[in-house]
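Tokens for chain A. Residues wanted.
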């Protein structure tokens, strides 16, 4: 702007000086007045353009600041964080063997946003399905709920999906101040791959936890052209499909506990210990039913000795959580 203004003023001054030398003072005066008017007009246009530029810049900065302070602004970071968490906390395969990062073939991640906690800020629900090769590319899913605290991503809770038709997650999203989770229900055949219908469970956030706030049966699933199609409002032929899976359907039959222990736990340990043949069982707790984050499991605690990778015996105490006669979670007591 400066050089242009200077050139315009210089040309006006030179024009006026030429007019004065020619003895045409009156005309020079009129030119001087006209040139001053033009210069003022040019200044006004420059100021107006500068003002518009500053307004646009301010709006852009405010929008950028708002996005950076919103959890929507870290969507890609959320996906990467969830994928990394899953790879560091892989489940066992159907035979109870440890999965490795190489076994995971792909991820499918969907995000939804809403003020779930009622604090006036949005939270994010990250619904992730990861596919494992070598077992028919089976899909396993979880729902992660995140918030933004002091510009840092904070994990609020994780919801585990069941085993395919037995509580596997079909969809998850925040609707208003609720988290809606759609899960599969089985057919009367009760096989893991026999999808009967879809049940919607609604959750609300209360006292730092998700609480169930009702639900409804959405409809039956029909296999058409190798795809499962949801027929909303269709009455199920089975009374079992018209309600959410019962605890018995989710947990499976109670594992048998004998004087030798619980077979499902022993099989699990054989697949994860450094030297499974060195295992010496010390004591078992009584097998019982427990709820973790409103989800039921069969539970038992075991104290045992086994050799580590250096050949030394180590005394350990672990809690085991089971469904359908398989250990799905294990943690040191």
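Reply:
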């Amino acid at each position: 702007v400066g050089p242009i203004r200077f050139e315009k003023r210089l040309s006006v001054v030179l024009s006026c000086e030429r007019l004065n030398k020619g003895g045409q003072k009156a005309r020079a005066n009129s030119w001087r007045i006209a040139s001053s008017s033009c210069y003022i007009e040019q200044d006004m246009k420059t100021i107006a353009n500068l003002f518009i530029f500053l307004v646009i810049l301010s709006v852009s900065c405010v929008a950028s600041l708002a996005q950076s302070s919103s959890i929507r602004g870290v969507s890609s970071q959320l996906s990467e964080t969830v994928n990394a968490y899953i790879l560091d906390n892989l489940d066992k395969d159907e035979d109870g063997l440890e999965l490795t990062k190489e076994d995971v073939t792909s991820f499918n991640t969907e995000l939804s946003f809403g003020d779930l906690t009622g604090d006036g800020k949005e939270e994010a629900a990250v619904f992730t399905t990861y596919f494992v090769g070598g077992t028919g590319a089976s899909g396993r899913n979880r729902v992660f709920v995140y918030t933004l605290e002091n510009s840092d991503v904070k994990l609020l809770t994780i919801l585990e999906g069941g085993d395919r038709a037995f509580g596997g997650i079909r969809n998850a999203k925040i609707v208003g101040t609720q988290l809606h989770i759609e899960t599969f229900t089985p057919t009367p055949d009760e096989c893991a791959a026999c999808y009967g219908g879809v049940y919607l469970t609604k959750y609300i956030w209360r006292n730092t936890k998700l609480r169930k706030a009702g639900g409804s049966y959405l409809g039956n699933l029909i296999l058409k052209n190798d795809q499962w199609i949801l027929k909303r409002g269709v009455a199920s032929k089975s009374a079992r499909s018209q309600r959410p899976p019962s605890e018995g359907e989710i947990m499976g039959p109670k594992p048998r506990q004998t004087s030798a222990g619980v077979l499902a736990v022993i099989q699990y340990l054989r697949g994860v210990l450094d030297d499974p043949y060195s295992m010496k069982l010390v004591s078992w707790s009584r097998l019982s039913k427990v709820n973790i984050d409103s989800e039921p499991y069969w539970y038992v605690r075991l104290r045992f000795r086994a050799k580590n990778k250096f050949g030394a015996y180590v005394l350990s105490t672990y809690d085991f959580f089971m469904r359908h006669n398989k250990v799905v979670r294990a943690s040191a007591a």
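The helical segments are 2-21, 25-68, 75-88, 247-251, 263-272. The longest strand covers residues 209-224.
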